[in-house]
Structure formats: C-alpha cells, structure tokens
Design goal:
7% strand; 7 helices; 3 strands; mainly alpha; Protein Binding, DinI Protein, Chain A; single chain
C-alpha cells in the first residue's frame, strides 16, 4: 500500500504557520487625533522698545554710567573713551535692532528661562519673530504683549 504524505505534510505546515502567526503581535499604526501647531509671532518694535525701557537694560546702563563717572573722577581718559565708544555702539545697536538690521540676541537671551512660560501663557507651540510661510488655516497668535509684559515686569 502506498502512503500519500501530502495531506499530512500540508496539515503540519498549516499548523506550523498558524502557530508562528499566532505568536506575532499584530503591528498596527497608531493614529491619534490630528494635531496642529499654533505659532506665536511677535512684533520687533514693541519688544525692542520694552527691552530698552526695562530694568534689565537700566541696570546694565547704570553700571556703565557708574564706571564712566569713576573714570571721569579718576581722570582716566582712556577708560572714559572706551566706555563712551561702548555706549555709542550700544545706541547704534538699539537703532539697528529697531530697524530690523540687527539680531535681537541680547534682548531674547535674558528671557531664555521664561520662553516655556510665555508659550504656555499665550497657548502656542512655537514662538518666532515672523514666519516665512504659513499654510492657510494655521493657528497664529500674537505673543508680543506676553513678551513685553515679561520685560516690563523685571
């Protein structure tokens, strides 16, 4: 009698495949609700003006003026000239910042520890000076008042 091994082999192969596929965890893509970023933008001029009227700037300027007064009282003309050049350079920087020709690094850096709080308060995900491109329907919020508030509170 001749044995037909095909049915037995087939059943074994199918059982083995079911066992292998039964062990595998099904991989499914997890999609949550669509999230959109809300962009916070600010206007340069009010931020620059608020900084140069702030206590942060006032303290720095006062320290330089105190040094200048000491140089005048001590008759140190070289130090006086250096401080005057530095004051003039700072004035020029402020004007360039206001015109949009210079970086705001010296203004934005003192707020480094507060950016997360500003973003949370304004309910935004990103803060930029001005976006290059925004898709229609993008969430945009003006965060200028929140930044000015932080600068004037110091």
């Amino acid at each position: 009698m001749k044995l037909n091994l095909f049915p037995a082999t087939s059943i074994s192969a199918i059982a083995f495949m079911l066992f292998i596929f039964g062990l595998a965890v099904p991989a499914r893509a997890q999609f949550g609700p669509e999230t959109k970023l809300t962009v916070g933008v600010f206007s340069r001029a009010p931020v620059v003006q608020a900084f140069y009227r702030s206590a942060i700037w006032n303290a720095k300027l006062q320290a330089m003026l105190d040094e200048r007064n000491k140089a005048v009282a001590g008759g140190d003309g070289e130090k006086l000239d250096a401080i005057d050049k530095q004051l003039n350079a700072m004035q020029a920087l402020a004007q360039q910042q206001l015109a949009g020709e210079a970086s705001l690094k010296n203004i934005l850096d003192p707020l480094a520890a507060e950016w997360a709080a500003i973003a949370k308060e304004a309910d935004v995900d990103i803060i930029v000076e001005r976006p290059i491109y925004l898709a229609s329907g993008s969430g945009v919020t003006d965060v200028t008042p929140f930044i000015v508030k932080r600068l004037t509170a110091r």
